[in-house]
Design brief:
transmembrane helix, globular, mainly alpha, two-stranded antiparallel sheet
Length: 203
């Protein structure tokens, strides 16, 4: 049986806020309002830091939903940012394609894990009920590094037109490093597989 938990924690609300900021950032980038985009991006980054800090330090704020919602919020934010920055000619198309492809596969895997860990009979109401906690997700170390590197590249790319270094060789080196960590992260999930999922037993 799944564990019944309260999904309305502060970290989960912060993750939802980050998801809500993603399309705002995308719009600002497409409109080339990079100064404001940098500020909104800093706010999104603050929500990411806060939700992790709160979940680690207050046991009643930690949830199985949060273990999936936090990385999902990161992936939605990163996907929209990379698509927008590619549209603005600040990040190359192949890199964005690589990142989006990996994230789509990981999100599909999360939905599959949710389905497989639900008790029978499996219903849509159970599947989409955030109060039913069936599994915790444990990201790999390289995946955490990859998320940090991807966000560093976003910050550097957003700042590039503001501080006039869009053609910098250092930015291009960061593209290559981001591609490497993205590939390594995808392989780590393939290699470790089930070790990244902890099925919750009912109390």
């Amino acid at each position: 049986m799944p564990q019944y938990e309260n999904p309305w924690t502060i970290p989960n609300m912060l993750s939802m806020t980050r998801i809500g900021l993603a399309p705002v950032l995308g719009y600002l980038i497409i409109e080339e309002d990079f100064n404001i985009a940098l500020g909104v991006f800093a706010l999104a980054g603050l929500t990411d830091l806060l939700d992790g800090f709160i979940a680690r330090n207050w046991a009643n704020q930690k949830s199985a939903l949060g273990s999936a919602l936090d990385p999902l919020a990161d992936k939605i934010l990163i996907s929209i940012l990379y698509i927008s920055l590619t549209y603005a000619d600040l990040i190359p198309v192949p890199l964005t394609y690589m990142i989006i492809s990996r994230d789509v596969m990981l999100i599909a895997a999360v939905f599959y894990v949710r389905y497989r860990t639900l008790p029978t009979p499996r219903t849509l109401s159970k599947y989409f009920n955030p109060c039913y906690a069936t599994a915790r997700l444990k990201p790999t170390f390289i995946s955490k590094v990859n998320t940090a590197v991807q966000l560093i590249l976003v910050a550097a790319s957003l700042a590039a037109p503001v501080f006039n270094y869009a053609d910098s060789i250092y930015l291009q080196i960061l593209w290559c490093f981001t591609a490497f960590t993205t590939a390594a992260s995808a392989y780590s999930y393939y290699h470790y597989g089930r070790k990244t999922v902890q099925v919750i037993k009912g109390r």
